[in-house]
Amino acid sequence: MSPSWTPPPTPAFAPTHDPLTPARDITHPHFQAGDQVVVIKGVAAGELWGDAMRVVAPSWHTPTDEDGWRLRDATGGAQTYVTAHPRYLVHLSRRCPDCLIHLRAMEDHLLPKHTDGNALVDCGWYTTTALGQLVHITDARGSR
Questions:
Q1: What's the rounded Cα separation, in Å, for the pair 18 and 36?
Q2: Quick one: which H or E segment has residue 107?
Q3: What are the DSSP calls for 49-75, one per residue?
Q4: Residue 4's pLDDT is what?
Q5: 113: nearest Cα among 40, 11, 15
Q6: How many CA atoms lie within 13 A of 11 on its CB side?
Q7: What is the structure's pLDDT at 9?
């Protein structure tokens, strides 16, 4: 008999203000092709969670009219490749001081707001456009 498999819990949608990411001053050269990154989406079991991806190549991020990065989601999904602005990304593949400071600030901001240790909470900060652009809610424009 095969072991029982249970799907991951469906995230609770909890729109939460994000004062940190939109104000983050991160330059395009901070990330390099091949870097493993995460896009923080919320809280799970008392920790930050998000989508882990690999930086593929520089790309124009149309929603912000700034340099962005083409990312590959190794797990696939509806869109394996997306383009994101660098300020959305946090290094996973190396201990980067800027990213560690940003992660700590995100933890300080989010974890006290979501104290249910069993919940998987999606803060609702990101959407993916039809053009494969990962967009933060503060960057979304009706005309794009």
A1: 23
A2: helix 97-110
A3: EEEEEEEEEEEEETTTTEEEEEEE-TT
A4: 56
A5: 15
A6: 15
A7: 61
Percent of the chain clearing pLDDT 90 (strictly above):
59
DSSP of 1-22: -PPP--PPPPPEE-----SSTT
Residue type at 114 in one-letter notation:
H
> Is residue 52 a contact partner of residue 38, using CB atoms and an 8 Å limit?
yes
- Cα 122 to Cα 138: distance, rounded to the nearest angstrom: 16
Q: Is there a contact between 68 and 60 (Cβ–Cβ < 8 Å)?
A: yes
Average pLDDT (100-112) is 94
- Selected residue with higher pLDDT from 135 and 45: 135
Q: What is the pTM of this model?
A: 0.84
